[in-house]
Amino acid sequence: MSEDVQVTQGYGYGQQPGAPDHGYGVPTSGAPGYGQPTSGPGYGQPTSGAPGYGQPTSGPGYPGYPQQQQGYPQQQYGQQQYGGGYGQPSAPNGAPLADAVSRLLARLIDGLILGLGLGVVGGILAVLVGVVAGGIFAAGAGSSSGGASAAGLIIGLLLWVVVIVLMIGVAWWYEVEYPKGTGQTIGKKTMKIAVVRLDNGVVDRGTLAKRYLSQIGLGFIPFGGLLDALWLLWDKPYQQCLHDKWPNTAVIKLPG
Description:
Shape: elongated
Structural class: mainly alpha
Oligomer: single chain
Transmembrane segments: 112-138, 150-174, 212-234
InterPro entries: Pra-immunoreactive (IPR051791), RDD (IPR010432)
Radius of gyration: 41 Å
Organism: Virgisporangium aliadipatigenens
Helix content: 40-55%
Largest sheet: 2 strands, antiparallel
Main location: membrane
Strand order of the largest sheet: 1-2
Strand content: under 5%
Subcellular location: Cell membrane
């Protein structure tokens, strides 16, 4: 009887029979007790290689929320490449759209460069035309025949046509050929903006030719040029000018 009492007294909650009695609820060495984790899986204790509550697994989690698609990808909306933010107007490729001030400054820079280039080329050609036409008229004045004077007038007019064609060619090269592929003139490079196609195609000669011809055509309409420049202020969603409509283009802001 005394032996049974001794064994019962040594068997507390969380103790094994025969183990020393260290007090109520205190686990003993090598024996699991109340609140003491074991070497196997327990409540709330993740084990190696076994999924637990709230622990991500290598496969999908809850239905409809696969683990690999938690949140938006970094590349979405161009945030990794361009740094665009949520709610900022952007092109279909995710790049933020250029603001009106950047586009205006780029246009002014291009206008100065193109105007200076055309002025130099036109001035040189005008001098050559004057020299040639003057020589022809001088030769006709010394002749009794009026045919020489008529020929001189025709040649002078043809030379002016050549001057105009060359000036148009310079403008064409600057607005169409030079930015081909990059969508950037010198002004746009300075302001870090570029023309892109809304279908994400290459900005080729045809695209830039449509933009250039649209600008020229709108220039012949009273207040057409002004309306073209201001159109982006209310155009949605891509802030296009009127000359962007036909070629289906927009202007984006580049990173950096």
